[in-house]
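Exercise 4. Each item below gives a protein and its sequence. For each, produce the structure-token representation.

Item: Protoporphyrinogen oxidase (Kineococcus aurantiacus).
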Amino acid sequence: MSQLVAEDVTSRHGSDDPVVVVGAGPVGLAAAERLLDGGAQVVVVDRAAAVGGSSRSLDLWGHRLDLGPRAVPADAPAEALTRWLDLAGAAGGVERTRAVHRAVVGGRLLDLPLRPTDLLPPGGAVRRLARHLGRDRTTGATPAPASAWDVLVARYGAAVTREVFVPASRKRFGVHPGELPAALADELAGTPRRRGGHGEVLTAREGAGAVWAELARRLTARGARVLLSTCVEGLITDGDRVSAVRLRDGYGGHVLPARAVVAAVPATGVRSWLPGTVAPTGPAATGRDTHLVHLLLEPDPRTGGIGQDAHSVTALDASLRVGRLTTTRPWRPATSRDASRTVVCAQFWSSGDDELSVLSDEDLAAAAVAELPALGVHRGVRVLDHHVHRVPGSVPAPLPGAGGTGEAGLDRLGNLVRVARADRPGPHGPAGALLTGRALAARVPVRSR
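Answer:
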């Protein structure tokens, strides 16, 4: 698909201008499909060399590893589930497993979802419970939560939130949970509460990336163009509308006339395209980086396993630098049945200018290995190899509210449609992204000719 970037898109005459979708992740590809359904010409552009965005897959040591969201809850909305199953089925099939998620809190491994009593010191009595939770016992209507702090305090109490979730919020997002939208409270707690910690989930046998490659294949078969390794340098405007998009690829710069633009990327990217837009500063405005450390493990010879059978372990301990550990084998047990070795992925988050961001790949891998026992991995496990994958700006800017201050000024162009905070996929994983993208495309204005 990337070979299409050499085309001189400015030479086309006598046809309608296309709708340009920026971002070839699940949301952008789903938006493109919806636009094609409506009869529009569509061009999808992405600076990456492959489709899938944060849901790409990576082949290491004979394992297919997913870099981002990989599972779809079996109880996802019917439309989302049906669309995802159609793609995953065509891309190699589906595996079904019962997910087990855990968290490390105070040196203890606890099942998710967390209960308030799980977070109490051992030996607490009812009186200590009430005092530790610090609940407000006043009666009357409860106001809608304004931030993740409000949600967590209502669920776990102020003392637990200060002790457990404030450090976790600073580790993941770089800010206090009072600066996060209420919708991120479940993410801080390790797993969406409504899904629980042990729900049944579906995964693509060939990896999440194969699902989005299949969708991209269908789009190009229907006439869409997918331009990879292509950056958006800016927008050309005519009054309050976008008239063209300035692109750059390996062949140089291009100007692509556009009927409308769908921005399936974070607000930080959209701001850089608009002249005169002042971007907020600091890590809370620019987002944070993700560092994925994949480790190839050989089982402990005494036990024959690695000791950690959970799909994921969220590190809520402030003393741990790892944010989350995932294990590949539980996600696709049938695919991994004959594999003697296992791959785990330790996930770190950084602001781009802190200690973690300047560590070499070897030092970052060593930091992950040092914390494996605290995350439930047997000490007798051998680490055979490592691979570090860094994803800059992958954690969205955590600005409170559906249209926080960081998003101000981005809606002045009538035919620029973007993913606002309120549009981000909910707890249904990749399947939810399909519905988000289609809803985004439905907002593209129809222009009379």
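Check: The chain is about 25% helix and 25% strand.
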